[in-house]
Amino acid sequence: MAVKKVSGKESLLGKALRLGELVGYQEGSVVSREVINKKTGTVTIFAFDEGEGLSTHSAPFDAMLYVVEGEAEVTIDDNPSKLKAGDFIIMPANHPHAVKALKKFKMLLIMIRSKE
């Protein structure tokens, strides 16, 4: 599944915002919006339609996935975990992982680009 990126020209800096409102659901899609993109790491919010997901892949850095709303299954090293709003999981660097929406769900992905 290709991820559709949403860009916002307006600055998010210094504004009180509702995290779940930064990206909307689109039928049959995964939509993402970068909140922070720095050399040291990224913060991205995603919205997944029910049944959509990200296929198995790995990343060179640890990443924290926080479920903002809905339900998802996150598989790390072939071990699935069901998560719901308020839950989070840390996906370790260089370990295969995948994400699937059990229901429509939104997640915040925080990746710190450091090997320490």
From TrEMBL:
Pfam families: Cupin_2 (PF07883). Coiled coil: none annotated. SUPFAM superfamilies: RmlC-like cupins. It comes from the Archaea. Residues 46-111 form the Cupin type-2 domain. CDD domains: cupin_HP0902-like (cd02230). InterPro entries: Cupin_2, RmlC-like_jellyroll, RmlC_Cupin_sf. This is Double-stranded beta-helix domain protein.
